[in-house]
Design goal:
The complex is a heterodimer of chains A (about 300) and B (about 280). Helices cover about 75% and strands about 0% of the residues of chain A. With about 300 residues, chain A is mainly α. In chain A, strands 1-2 form a two-stranded antiparallel sheet. Classes of the chains: A mainly alpha (about 300), B mainly alpha (about 280).
Amino acid sequence: MRSTKSPVGVTAARSRHRLRARRWAGWLFALPALAFYGVFNFYPVLLSIQYSFYDWDGVGASTWVGLRNYTEVFTDNEQFSSLLHAFYLILFFTILPVTIALITASVLRQLQGRFTGALARTLLFLPQIIPGAAAGVAWTWMYSDNGVVNQLLRAIGLDGVTRAWLADYTWALTAVGFIGTWLSTGLCTMLLLAGIGKIDNSLYEAARIDGAGPIRQFLAVTLPGLRNEIGVCVTITIIAALASFDVVYLATQGGPGTQTMVPGVAVYRLAFNDARLGAASALAVVLALVVIAVVVPLQRLFREK
Amino acid sequence: MPERTQTARALRRRTPGLILITAAALYSVVPLLSMVSAALAPQGTFPSGLSWPSDPHWHNFVDAWNVANITTLLKSSMLIVLGVVPVAVLIATMAAYAIAVLEIPLGGVFYTVLVLTLTLPYEIVIVPLYEQTRAMGLLGTQWALILPLIGMNMPFAVFWMRAHFAGVPKELSEAAGMDGAGPWRALFHIHLPLARPAIASLALLMFLSTWNQFLLALVLIDDPNKRTMAGALQAFTTKYSTDQVLLNAGALLIMAPTILVFLVLQRHFVKALLQGSIKG
């Protein structure tokens, strides 16, 4: 009986086969992207992991050193403090901008879009558009001996506290941090403003009828309503803080001493100044793991419902 | 006069907001204005903070244009942008189409891997990319930046275009199939026209990130004249670190193209950046 396969079945099988072949043929569309991604993104990530277990200067032979590069990340002062600095920068790249943006956006909500016109939007957004490297140059000038920051301090009679901020051992990292605040605030404000516009006005009405003042309204309506947008702001700015390179490299190169050393600059210096490709890769891998370890829980935390 | 008190009250209610937005706007532009004021001081002097020079030296910008090789840099940056953006947009769109519309086998796996690497910092690829481009003999040429940037753009670009294709009704492709259109014709005649806004936003975001690319430009191209504008800024600042006037004039020229493009396409930029952040 097994030989009497109906002709209909044969056709169906054949067309199913043809269909499956056609679906595989769709890969032709994805192949160029796969090739570029594979060669210039995915494979380098794997290579970095491989390098991180070796001692290698990029020219001579490489020697397997196991986890030694990794233990160095946590015991070498310059490398480990760069990670701590990155976390400190979150305060300025993320927490300050999101806080300022929340206040600005909720005040602006009451202005019913009058002042959120083209001019304000353009000016607020400007820092987002220029390269981080250029921001580094702009702020190096702001922070210099005769720059605007000291000029302002002198104008309000605080001559005593003026200094070359980026060269100051105590203040350099904080000064770098405020450059990050400058870079992130505009985007966060616009994002939260867009989110606030989507909150149903009747929620505010109801809160007002229940006797809620502006602060209660903010806590009970605005904050929960912006959960998603806040999550987005926090995620992108934290990644910017942890992986910062251009701003710091142009403003301070990690100095004075190692006061503003961040993982990005440390990776660059290990690899291209000290020719220690294995050590550089290990720090880069740790940095990537830190980013993932911070971002993944945040995604869960801020996901709606 | 009740009308008057009403206006006054409305004004009073708006004042804090007005002050706030003014302060925020000032904070955004003061660093740039202070650069302009320094750039207009006489060369060889030490400018001071934010002050409009009595005799603005506009010619400083011409000198900075020449010493910073802006003409060469503009050409180089445009070459890099033209090498990266159209190719990356095209192949990401094709891949997203294959994943979301053609539903290629294992497409979901490919997509998941792309998304998993979306948040990885550039630092993790920089050393291997240096070695790879050197082995390919491309180090120091614009290709050393163009090819890796296309690859680095794939996670976000495919993610972005897939989000667009996922929103296109299935019936559309089925109807195209009924009419005998193959996957190529369906893509070019039906899906691409619909995807135009998504593609335009993606191209804008990619233009910005390519033009502003710093780390890869610094590492992969030795000659500052072959880098992007942002990458060349590094060499320029080291060279003119003691000349505040020329340094600021040059840095402003280096920023000017993005600012100009932004001012012209402002609405699209803001929209693209906001959408980009929400999707990313």
